[in-house]
């Protein structure tokens, strides 16, 4: 994917297949965490992995129905650039935590079309 306009991130496929409803946001995962993302379903189960993707793809700015989410404070919560949200910390289970930001009008180039994007920045597999 060297020619991807979304480098250094890669598209994050929905675990278990396509969603019923078209996503509102394109979900991307940083290439450093792509392997962990592909193992997500085996760690938390397919249902929880799908719930996470559905949440990120549909309503990343609202509290989740499943799991817990908070906005990080201090430098850890700073947006990566103009237009990005503060970093949100989502706990998919006691073993999996994901930090992400979203941008409702991400452009791959100046003057390009805006796209709503969620960027998964980190994935941690461990207990507290």
Describe the structure.
With 128 residues, this protein is of the alpha+beta class. It has one domain (9-125). It has three helices and six strands. The chain has helices at 34-38, 40-44, 46-58, and strands at 9-11, 26-30, 68-71, 88-91, 96-106, 115-125. A six-stranded mixed beta sheet has the order 1-2-6-5-4-3. Strand 4 (88-91) and strand 5 (96-106) form a beta hairpin. The radius of gyration is 14 Å and the shape is globular. The mean pLDDT is 89.
Large-scale geometry: globular
How many strand segments?
A: 6
Rg, rounded, reads: 14 Å
- Count helical runs: 3
What is the averaged pLDDT score?
89
Strand order of the largest sheet: 1-2-6-5-4-3
Q: What order do the helices and strands follow? A: EEHHHEEEE
Which spans of ≥5 residues are poorly predicted at pLDDT below 50? none
Give the amount of beta strand, in percent: 25-35%
Helix content: 10-25%
Tell me the span between the first and last alpha carbons. 34 Å
**Any idea how many domains?**
1
Structural class: alpha+beta
**Largest sheet geometry:** 6 strands, mixed
Features:
128 residues, alpha+beta, six-stranded mixed β-sheet
Secondary-structure map:
Layout: E1 9-11, E2 26-30, H1 34-38, H2 40-44, H3 46-58, E3 68-71, E4 88-91, E5 96-106, E6 115-125
Parallel strand pairs: 2-6
Antiparallel strand pairs: 1-2, 3-4, 4-5, 5-6
């Amino acid at each position: 994917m060297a020619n991807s306009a979304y480098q250094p991130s890669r598209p994050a496929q929905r675990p278990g297949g396509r969603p019923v409803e078209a996503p509102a946001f394109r979900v991307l995962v940083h290439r450093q965490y792509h392997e962990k993302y592909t193992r997500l379903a085996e760690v938390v189960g397919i249902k929880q992995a799908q719930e996470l993707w559905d949440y990120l793809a549909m309503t990343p700015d609202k509290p989740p129905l499943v799991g817990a989410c908070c906005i990080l404070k201090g430098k850890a919560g700073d947006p990566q650039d103009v237009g990005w949200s503060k970093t949100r910390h989502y706990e998919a289970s006691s073993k999996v935590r994901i930090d992400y930001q979203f941008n409702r009008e991400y452009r791959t180039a100046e003057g390009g079309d805006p796209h709503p994007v969620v960027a998964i920045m980190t994935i941690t597999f461990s207990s507290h």
